[in-house]
Amino acid sequence: MLISGFPSWAAYLLRTRIIYAKSATRRYCLLFDLIRANRIKTIMEIGVYDGRRALEMISTARIHHRAKEITYLGFDLFEQMDDEILRNQFSKRPDTLDSLKEKIGNTGARVELFRGFSGKTLPRMITERDLYPEPELVFIDGGHAVETIGSDWENVRRLMTRRTIVVFDDYYVDRPDLIEKFGCNKIVDSLGTEFDVEFPDRIDAFERENGLFKIRMAKVTKI
Question: Are 30 and 67 in contact (CB under 8 A)?
C-alpha cells in the first residue's frame, strides 16, 4: 500500500536532486534556492546566453508549480551580437532567438524573449507591463560593462516591489583593475538605504588570460 503523499514527495526530491546536479558553478545555486524557498513562478533574466540557466530556473520553479503557471521573460541581443559588442561588454555570444525560443519553450512554461539592447527592450516591456505577470525574481547577467549594468538596474528598479528579488551576477572580488569598467560592484556598492543588499557566501574562482577571477552574486530587495 502506498503511503499517502509519497508520490508527490518522491517527485519533489527527485526534481531537487536533478536540479542541483546540473550546476557545477556554486554561485548559481543561489538562484535555485531563492526560487524554491519563495515559490517563485515569474522569472526575468537579462542575458539569456545559451538558455541553460533558464532551463534550470524553470525546472526549479516546477517543484511548486505546473509548467503552464510559470513565466520566463528573457532579454538578449541573440543573433545581433557582434565581435565589437562582445569585446566592449566583456560578454559571451548568445544562441539565436529562434533556437532559444524552441529550447526554452519546450519546458511548457510561458516564454517571452526580447531581442535587442536591453536599454531599449526593457523600457518597452515596462510600458507594456500589464501584458506580463509581475517579475518575482530578476537575474541581471547581460552585458558586463558598468554602464550597461547600471542601465539595466535603473530599468529593473522601476518594476520592483517589496516582493521582488533582484540578483546581480559578476560582483568581482579582489579585482580593482576591473571594477571601474566591468561588473556590478560600482552599482551595488552605491545603493542607498532604500535597498537591502546581501552577498551570499558562494564565490567561484577560475583562471582566465588576464588573471584569476573570483566572482560572487549580490541579492537586492526593497526595504
Answer: no
Beta strands 165-172 and 211-222: pairing type? Answer: antiparallel
Q: Is 213 in contact with 172 (CB distance < 8 Å)?
A: yes
Amino acid letter at 11? Answer: A
β-partners of residue 205 are 214
Q: What is the CATH number of the domain that holds 213?
A: 3.40.50.150
**In 3D, which of 175, 179, 172, 177 has the Cα closest to residue 203?**
172
Instruction: Provide the domain count of the chain.
Output: 1
| Total residue length of the chain | 223
Question: Is the dihedral angle over the CA atoms 150, 73, 36, 22 positive or is it negative?
Answer: negative
Domain assignment of residue 210, given as a range: 6-222
Are 144 and 178 within 8 A, CB to CB? Answer: no
Of the candidates 185, 183, 214, 180, the residue with the CA atom closest to the CA atom of residue 197: 185
Q: Is 208 among the domain residues?
A: yes
pLDDT in tens, 190-222: 998 999 999 998 999 988 777 888 999 999 999
Burial of 100 (0-12, 13-18, 19+ CB in 10 A): buried
pTM for the whole thing?
Answer: 0.87
**CA distance readout (Å), 31 to 11, 167, 200:** 20, 8, 11
In a domain, 1, yes or no: no
